[in-house]
Amino acid sequence: MKQPEAHQSEFVETATHGEQDALGRAVQQQEKNRTWWQTLRQDPWLLLWAGVMLWTLIVRGFESQASGSVISIPVFKERFGKINEDGSYFIETKWQSALGGGATGASIVGSIAGSWLSDKYGIKPVVIGATAINIVSVGIEFASTSVAMFFGGKMLNFVAIGIFLTTCTSYVSDIAPLAIRATLIGFCNLSQCIGPFIAAIMVNFTSSWKTDWAWKSLVATQWGFAAIGLVGQLCMPESPVYLVGKGRAQDARKVLERMYSDPRDAEAHLERITLTLREAETQDSMSYLDCFKGTNLRRTMISVFVFMSEAMSGLGFISNYGALMYQYLGISDAKSFQLQIGGQILSISGAAIALLLSDFIGRRPMFIAGCAGLAGLLLCMAISGSVSTSAAVTASVGFYTMFNFFYNVGVGSTVYAIAGEIPTSILRAKTLAIALSTSNALNTFWSFVSPLMFNPGYGNLKAKIGFVFGAIMLVFVVLAYFYVPETRMRSYEELDELFMNRVPSRQFKKHVTVAEQRAAEAYDEKHGLKGGEKANV
Fold this sequence. Notes:
537 residues; mainly alpha; two-stranded antiparallel sheet; 2 strands; globular; disordered N terminus
């Protein structure tokens, strides 16, 4: 595809061994010089392959939303539930907890297995294998004759979803151009907002059906997502970072030529990856234990910390028990499903705004502000839930629904960008697996505990559960200020240097690295520039 001349790379197609490092550094500076819009238009094929992985993630949000909604559908409750004294049906609390907590626990297995398998065999075959598992597990859910069988299918499905989360985020982080890196990685969160939106619309229309299709239609829809995703997965190239790490430079070159419109950019990015993976020949010996050694420990802890904010903000509670919570607040079944649609529209709006802002404002301020906003919102919800008036109930419903926007505009998108950028390249998949597994472990905990906290007959907190999650988010605001660094417009080589030199997190933004100085010098030398001059990029 021919590109406008003003955006053509200035790099030669090949380089001698002595020029390779300079070529890799010069392309880093070229990416810094390009604007967000220039980068977005530059390489459409790269965006397409990233889009395949982002499409794959839609199923995670859809399945999570469907899990919480299906237990509120009358036909499902009649089919698999127990009968109350008043003649109504309900799903036992133990199965509510199991469907929420057990499934997210299964995704831990998927995340760990996915990272290990992708490091050994590559991301592409692992994603295709996970899609096959997803298709089979949906069949089990669809054919369920008991809540135990439905639970078994969901467990298997979430193993596949855990694999998707680790591998898709890692792949997008590997190939994302610098100027739009947070936009693409943050899209991992937006993809997971689109799924619940589709699920909420379907539930609104199908929940009143009198046949098993009221809930089976939700399950069967996942086959559609899987079929479309599988076509793209079969066509997409392998991660070039994986190929270079395995010493397959020629294969990596072919892959990059499929991603970049200009072959000269492809060659330069091959040298950039090689430069970043200077220790790639030891990749086979890199284990999970290495994530906790030396400066990698700090990088792992930051990734774990930001992903912990997902679970500790109450996300699992909101996503798994949204419809039930509305009903406990006195909202009718039909109205609760409609409110869920509104909540998902707010989720998509928040995630979309975050995509547009994160590459301009930065990850650190958006994450801190997001935690602070959630703390305020949850505490307001709890306070209104402590007052027994119709106006207070309405306010609680409003605050509860607005959680979707506040979460996604701040925390939801930035955690993927931060955790995707922070790890060293050769440990990215494993670090993401650890972070995601920790988040899922906490979600599992809250999935079991939350029903006991807010259900009538147990804690009966209802909206007052916001006191718990709001207080936790205040702690996250303080910790994030001291420990979450700014990674905006930092190449992976620069981030390696910042962590190796143990630069404090609050100083990341202004600290001048040797890597960025060398990149600027290499770029100027390639273009024959003197200080202060600029070249077309």
